[in-house]
Amino acid sequence: MKALHRIIDTARSKPKRIVLCEGGDERVLRAAARASREGCAHIAVVGARTLAETTARENGIDLAGIALIDPADSPHAETYAQELYKLRQAKGMTLEQARDKVRDPLCYANLMVRCGDADGSVAGAVHTTADVVRNAIQIIGVQPSFKLVSSFFLMMLCQPFHTLKGGLIFSDCGLVVDPNAEELSEIAMAAADSARSLLMEEPRVAMLSFSTSGSAHHALVDKVSDASRRVKQLRPELAIDGDVQLDAAIVAEIADRKIKNSAVKGRANVLVFPNLDAGNIGYKLAERVGGAVAIGPLLQGLKKPANDLSRGCSADDVYHVIAVTVVQAQTSIA
Fold it and tell me: E strands along the chain, which residues?
């Protein structure tokens, strides 16, 4: 998996501070220990210190080099409470409520990122996606250039039977249910940025539909076409085709027949799905039937990196998301 190895090597070249908040989970601690040991990231684990230590001891995990931070006795807790109060007082939060909320490891971890004491966060092995995303949006915030946070999967196609090899970005497969044309264009631009930073290639974006170049007439096709036009106006340098069917997006011979003056030429590395139905089905088909490795869901559009995990994740999955978060942080800081 050359694309994944490049991400890990890039993370090791300039490791960043990544905070985790599920120290009672053996998978998270195993991945944290590996990331620290292999020089991929500087790891902090937020939560009850005794829980993390007990989990590590029972599973033979060495926590050397990992900072264990317990919000209950942290000297930074009051500073973070004041920051959270300033951030949320307009929504009715009191200072006492902020002090209580800071004891929540997920909240504390994102406040570390907001306040510059960590460069990115990873959660979701235990917490729900709704909790992870809500905390990230409320505390870390959305990039000024975007109006919404979306998600993507990094799909790795590296088996001998794969005719299409390497890494692809699939978006949005986990968060925005039914984006309108403007929201779909934002998802496309964010996914292009994700491809540039993680695949380390120039993005080639396919705006997927059941139509190619107006071959079908329907409001759903119009949405994709409108989104494509908006992206072209805002990012004229970006290679993008849309509306386009999947085969014309990834097979050069079909693109030659179906699309005049194609910018992508059947070589898309970013697939933007028209809604969450299509995206979720598409990535699971690629993973379960096509044998692709799916890393994610990962978040895009935040001011600083904060990524979600599947609650069915493995320790390897957590490690890979840590590496991705480091590379996102490198790009964010740059």
Answer: 16-20, 41-46, 67-69, 120-123, 150-157, 166-171, 204-208, 239-244, 270-272, 293-300, 306-308
